[in-house]
Structures
1.
Amino acid sequence: MLAPNNPALKSWLEIPASSDFSIQNIPFGVFQTGAHGPRGCTAMGAYVVNLGMLHDLGYFNGIVMPPDVFKQPYLNTFIAMGKERTRAVRQRISDIFKANSPYPLKDNSEHQQHVLTPMYEAEMLMPVFVRDYTDFYSSEYHAFNVGTMFRGPENALMPNWKHLPVGYHGRASTIYVSGTDVHRPFGQLKADDSDPVYGQSKLLDFELEMGFIIGKGNEMGQQISTAEAEDYIFGMVLFNDWSARDIQKWEYVPLGPFLGKSFASTASPWIVTLDALAPFRVAGPPQNPPVLDYLKYSGKKGFDIHLEVMLETEQGHEKVICQSNHKYLYWNIAQQLAHHTVNGCKVEVGDMMASGTISGPEEGSYGSMLEITWRGSKPVEMPDGTSRKFIQDGDTVYMRGWAEKEGVRVGFGEVKNKVVNRS
Amino acid sequence: MLAPNNPALKSWLEIPASSDFSIQNIPFGVFQTGAHGPRGCTAMGAYVVNLGMLHDLGYFNGIVMPPDVFKQPYLNTFIAMGKERTRAVRQRISDIFKANSPYPLKDNSEHQQHVLTPMYEAEMLMPVFVRDYTDFYSSEYHAFNVGTMFRGPENALMPNWKHLPVGYHGRASTIYVSGTDVHRPFGQLKADDSDPVYGQSKLLDFELEMGFIIGKGNEMGQQISTAEAEDYIFGMVLFNDWSARDIQKWEYVPLGPFLGKSFASTASPWIVTLDALAPFRVAGPPQNPPVLDYLKYSGKKGFDIHLEVMLETEQGHEKVICQSNHKYLYWNIAQQLAHHTVNGCKVEVGDMMASGTISGPEEGSYGSMLEITWRGSKPVEMPDGTSRKFIQDGDTVYMRGWAEKEGVRVGFGEVKNKVVNRS
């Protein structure tokens, strides 16, 4: 029995080499079709695999699970079973789909018809009920860029920035899945020399982020160390922290972002497990000044995940406007969770914790329009001759991410959302 | 049939005049005992009234409700039935308990034994599953006091403060019910001239607030006007927004409060409906400069609710250290909700929106230790000769609130929590 990450694994199902959903990936999601309601699923090549049906057909015999664990609107119950059992499920899926599988699916076309749905026929749903949502601010390049614009390069980073992973609470119930149209928000806008006015945001932006999902809760008052942290993390998604810069600028002092964010955040539908990402671990950046003991860590806590943002006009003209990487984060996910719980804060299965905008060191790797166009001073030229300082009505923002090594690709699919205007 | 608020209503059950839970109140909560799990309930004088049992016994016949609506861990399903039906339930409860009630409870001692639990035998639970939590900052006196301490009286209020109800996202899953011990949090603390250190908060504080609970959701992109807002609000609770001032001070720039708040917030277990509070409406303060159109409102949107904070030492020495009032809020709850949704933000049944610290205009009415002791410069003298700059281990903070008029008292009970130290 080969472990699911083994690069030697091949599937009897045809999977293109360019697919995000190799047999080494086995992410988890929730989908529905016209024929049935929400079902837990995984992705294999160009197919959504109905785990509820696999469970009904007995393919998970020997793994103790509630009969309806994959027939719920969210994966929270599945994730809450704990890593021992969710790993057993991932291993079983690997064994079902591998070449020379001992399981009957590969030769049973009736089972295949029940279990496999072409991706284009599946409606992907939010994979988890997000209990609480925290957004960090963990890319030094992003914090430096934004700080430079507003305070100059000498004062770009706030004094606390290198001592702790700055974060804030976001709104959990307005995180939507990829595909949801985003309404251009209204709000208070204020030019420097005039009174605030009511109007629509003119400076609508995306933020390229990744989010991790809590897979195990702690007790009130219990800290989670950096060494334990990854046991509490189930996996990751792509995350677009939509931001109305003009609303945010006027409202955020002194208590932080509010309506400039809460109209919508969006997430990709597939949760890629930390297990699937293990081969792509890399060392994090050196941290100087040294961090306090509770933030010290050992091992490779960074992830080499290529990230990119593509902008598409309403007429279908596309341009990749950012190529970045998860490894650029200064603060890793173990440090984020250790910091989050240092005060005894309780976390719960389904909590989402996002990275903050992941910008890289140079132009071309910046993760927001604010940085890409440097506050609008360097507009993006689109293939149809139009230009963008921020996001226009009708534009669609695609974020994609994947890791690749030794011929194995483990990807996240995409989070893609169109901006609409209801005014 | 007299409406539930009618001051002429008396109950066949003996209710002391000093009780928060007059027959005119009829708040909603969730309790359990050793004999049964969570049950929706109301309070009548010194008794918890088991609504699940009343429902089983047929007392709600004629009101369409799921049979298990009061046998769930939270009231969300009940609240989501809508005001027409929850009002019918409140009217029915009033009719069951009024003098000369046509319902059999008043003469049926077996039914009474099933339905009535003395309050001291009931364990009160969180009344709602808080889907998302927002904290506003709506008391001018509080914002002015805090601003004065940090920036002087000329710059006390930020430029946006009188143009919009400043608010921020808080952590919903760490809101605990009254009675829960609060752990003194650890975190990063930084004195002005030295590097940050890891340690326990020394400046632990309460914030006297009230929270309102959303009773009806909107759609993504749909604004709620000030005129409609109260249709979306089910009722209110007392709320203690515990704050670690030292942790907060170092972490909060530029994205707002995080770990200085997320270790715990606490709420009173009884939700008093807006209907029960209707007789206590008062005009709000004049707002100058004039607000934008979407924040304009008509009618009396303030509430004359007396609020107080009592501090009790571990040895049982008590002192009332604050007497304030909900009417001191500059921004009312209709404006808060209209602002919250002006950007199209979706709200959901069970969302909690707290007021921010409710300080009054003079000393004695300040709603936090930070203000009461003016950053520790005027310690509170306790009856046992000890003094307090902030909250000490073993101290219990009680917050109470009630409205009173024409001999009718409608109260919230209390939110009471002891500070413990696990180090």
Note: The two ends of chain A are 58 Å apart (CA to CA).
2.
Amino acid sequence: MISKLIDVAMGRTLADIIIKDGTVFDVFNHTFIKADVVISNGKIVALGSGYSAKETIDATDKYVIPSFIDAHVHIESSLLTPSEYAKIVIPKGVTTVIADPHEITNVLGEKGISYMFDSAKGVPLDVEYMLPSCVPCTPFEHSGSVIDANLTRELLSKYNFLGLAEMMNFVGVINNDSDVIEKLSTGAFVDGHAPLLTANELCAYICGGIQTDHECSTSGEALEKISRGMNILVREGTGAKNIQQLIKAVTPYNLNRFAFCTDDKHIADIVADGTILHCIKKAISCGLSLEDALTMATINPAKIYNLKGKGAIAPNYVADLIVCDKSLDSLHLVLKDGAIVSKDGVPSFNGKSISIQEVSNTVRVKKVSPQDFQLEFTKGMPVIETMKDSLITRKVYPSSADGLSICAVVERHKATGNIGKAFIKNIDIKDGAIAQTIGHDSHNITVLGDNPIDMSIAVDSLGSNGGICIVHNGKVISYMELEVAGLMSNKPYLEVLAMDKDIVEKIKVISKDGSSSILMLLSFLSLVVIPEIKLNDRGLFDVIEWKYM
Amino acid sequence: MISKLIDVAMGRTLADIIIKDGTVFDVFNHTFIKADVVISNGKIVALGSGYSAKETIDATDKYVIPSFIDAHVHIESSLLTPSEYAKIVIPKGVTTVIADPHEITNVLGEKGISYMFDSAKGVPLDVEYMLPSCVPCTPFEHSGSVIDANLTRELLSKYNFLGLAEMMNFVGVINNDSDVIEKLSTGAFVDGHAPLLTANELCAYICGGIQTDHECSTSGEALEKISRGMNILVREGTGAKNIQQLIKAVTPYNLNRFAFCTDDKHIADIVADGTILHCIKKAISCGLSLEDALTMATINPAKIYNLKGKGAIAPNYVADLIVCDKSLDSLHLVLKDGAIVSKDGVPSFNGKSISIQEVSNTVRVKKVSPQDFQLEFTKGMPVIETMKDSLITRKVYPSSADGLSICAVVERHKATGNIGKAFIKNIDIKDGAIAQTIGHDSHNITVLGDNPIDMSIAVDSLGSNGGICIVHNGKVISYMELEVAGLMSNKPYLEVLAMDKDIVEKIKVISKDGSSSILMLLSFLSLVVIPEIKLNDRGLFDVIEWKYM
């Protein structure tokens, strides 16, 4: 193999492909250069001129840039299987994702992990999985699965993981929880998850060996974490949008500590704007240079995660690259391992359909009735206030129930009958309810409505596979089945997109501000590691005080 | 261990040391910050305030900076054993070196490697060895040892090497020499050595998996190599001095591709100025910022060589650091693994004396006589011209022998009697000769003089251990024995320094421009991988044409 590459670079052997006359992004010198890119055996062998190849791609007036790397994503949040997910991100320039199968693992444990590895095979997207470090994400959860330190060690050696995924249990880290410390002692690379953590607590957390954070929301927070040695994954997903704030922290000198990620992004948003491509454009619109943005999308994540031979257009690098117009509006070609995998936005590969028997029919709920969702408002009771474009919630004490909706979380793994309830502010629902089997991170059923009858019908209608259900005046008006763990559809992405469109339209029937972001907000209402107040099947949880209220 | 660090960071357990009120270099944000540095169990656990410790170091008005890493060095060139070398570099702020035991390995093979590992044990200098990739350095050599691909594989698994050292045989790489390719196929990290290599040949060389280069002599050469994915080790040693030229290539964006190294530096120069400390000061005097220079001396080499936990002052990093005044003129304290190893320039540790039986008495020469060194000048014959501060030589054709000296290379490993001879320009010798058993890379005897009698006496006087010998008018006027492989003295560094001083003084007796740089120049006269014309025991070699003349 080495000999072959050298022969091609020396011009002794014909190359497979030449991308000719393009303007190539030199990630190392942070500039664009004129050069032909010579490819052989899936690798870039030379930048230069005067070469011959079996195939020539004309890149006159076009950019040739390394394809993108998403530094942290939960594929489940797209509602697609990994195989179908590849078909919507590759045409938008992504060829590698660092994926955390946290959601399906909370539902199904190792069965979910195994499915995710299998589904990603056979598509030209490099899915580098991190092993979820927090299943359940806190000791306060009723999830479908538990992965302790012993099982962590076993799974790390059994599967080809890149490391341990987001260590959300920062309280466990800084208080030396023995199971957490044992996980950190495996020597694996560990991703962080430490919103607002600062000063001595931040130092203690980093002493656990944690190397990244994707939860920064201010530039000051990012700068402190960088100073203490962390890499910052700048997130722009459907729910959480941090680019505008965080790029204020970027300097020419700390640029190499930043990478883009999406964390959680919905199918419709991906199809519309892409994932990392959207991060790049958003960052540029907020004032970052094109070169800086491309750096954060390519070589930086490759270096942070030690992905050898990725993220650059240089000899001996993998031929993962994009030929695009200079506005980045049209990605003409995407190449993976030297093969064209997308042309003018259309994927040129097929996924492989695999059995979902082991990962479907996962919903087990004790029969509900309207009275399960009754909740009386009393003055002085804590209420969850949601905030635009953020996963952070606030604890408020409104003086009346005006404009509040009811939300509830129904345990769905072991049919325990546990239901937590609370009022929620800033999501308006009228004459209806929405229920879904997506609810980070334990993925119990989250339901939102203005009356107990519709809420009960919505939960009931999710069936044994689960999904998303909208009820209006006693009738189901839209339903998307999510056969895989109650989290992902097993259908082709175009069908899922159509179902999703219907869901979003029908949300408007019961909510005047209705949009897909309501679904994303619902998904995170029960995530007790994000401040300030959350709800799960055991009731309201005060994240700051780290206890149930 | 992790638990202990976290306890200290949280303030629950007393720290070992606090470095208080210093100005700390934040390598990640490229700035200085005010913070106490908290150390426990040899690691930095926190930057902050309000901590307590068993020992407090006052750093008011002082810098606290990560200690330095020399990215590429041949310890042998200092004339000291690794154990003694540690005593002169640690007080100058170096606590880690990436060392290539190329010289001793060319003389002694595995015996030399084993000795170098042993000698470095027991001193607080982290010596990370690279396995020499080119022993002999070209097929044209008569060295004392041969390491082929099979032995390379064996040694890589037997010893704890960081990778393969400088791949000097670029001709072998780009022409797919099978033994070279097999070495490159081991998957090890490979250092490069590719002076003036450019364009397609450079790309082919990099396809061999070669990741660094320390032979750049112009900024343009550095920029091209960076563009093609290489890391540039900016060298400032006794013979080769590249900082002034190469820092012109440094930008805020490619800064992370540069590190400092010394390659070959003589004991006297190290004691006077240090190694990497000198690089930093020289670079600053040439216009680089202090922050850039410190970055190239610390975090950059750590990242290039994947030295985990090194190169920064941040939680979970190894407590290798320097407390110094803000001029960098006085390194008050050097800490290694959290322990003070040097105070105000004096090492606070002892080396360990080990047996040199396996590595001494290495010189085997066929008896020489004056007529072996007779050489007649004829017009049109090629002559070696040396250049100031460079290892590069030029092929010239002077019209007379005026100002020329005679040089010769005498095979010394197998007593074959091979002697190569040539005239040399720009080194003046009068009524005397210098001979030494140091001659890169095969380390045959190099001798320089203006008359055959003194040359013969000088070679003869080197003895079975070898060393450096100066003869004037038929008498030995100075001699330094180099018991270890004919390359290094086994004596304490102060004694070696005194002997070296005597040698340098006596050089002036036979050469009006005499200085230690004559010794370094002599050492490289036979290194046939550096352009343009070299001499070894088989005669004059044209490096450009890659053949004997």
Note: The first strand of chain A starts at residue 15 and ends at 20.
